[in-house]
Amino acid sequence: MIRRPPRSTLSSSSAASDVYKRQECINWVMWQMAGQGPMSGNFGHFMVYAPDDACEARTYGVTRYGMEVQRLCSVLDQQLQGKQFICGDEYTIADMMCLPWFDQIRQGKGYLHANGVNAAQFLSVSQYQNANRWADQLLARPQVQRGMLVCRKYGKPWLHDPRFKHLASSL
To answer: Which among 66, 58, 59, 60 has a CA at the least distance from the CA of 39?
Structure first.
């Protein structure tokens, strides 16, 4: 249950036992669930899937949710200034939850409009240097690479697709 994760899933060591660090982690989990996820999803919907004949609605949605996603990216970027992970020096469930949404926005193929403009270009995601550094650092981890593949075509693609066999060796 994400709403109240057990202490053992918050991080690998002391954050789970330090009440202040634990609360900071839970705050970021809530931030992701109430802000980053829904707003990024709404932006993606209007950018990519809104009907072509609904230009006013598409423009309004892309503008409204795009500005909010930029604000949220700025909040994340500021939080990561001088830090390795969202909650400091420890990799926590907050990092696990926020990374896929940020990566969906920043990668070239994420939220690609039919006209060829993607979310990274539209939102100028390259300006969020701390968040991009953090995402690159996390995505370099084999465990994160495996996690980002789950729920694609197969639950464990490294067992079925030879392109991902190298990820099985770090289990």
So the answer is: 66
Instruction: Compute the distance between CA of residue 18 and CA of residue 15 in angstroms, rounded to an integer.
Output: 5
Q: What angle do CA 148, 145, 25 make, to 5 degrees?
A: 70
Q: List strand residue ranges (DSSP E) for the chain, in order.
A: none
Q: How many CB atoms lie within 10 A of CB 120?
A: 19
* Model confidence pLDDT, tens digit, residues 97-119: 999 999 999 986 778 888 899 99
Buried b (16+ CB within 10 A) or exposed e, 6-40: eeeebbeeebbeeeebbebbbebbebbeebbbebb
User: Average per-residue pLDDT in the chain?
Assistant: 86
Task: Give the whole-angstrom CA distance, residue 109 versus residue 53.
Answer: 24
pTM over 0.85: no
Is the CB of residue 105 less than 8 Å from the CB of residue 99?
no
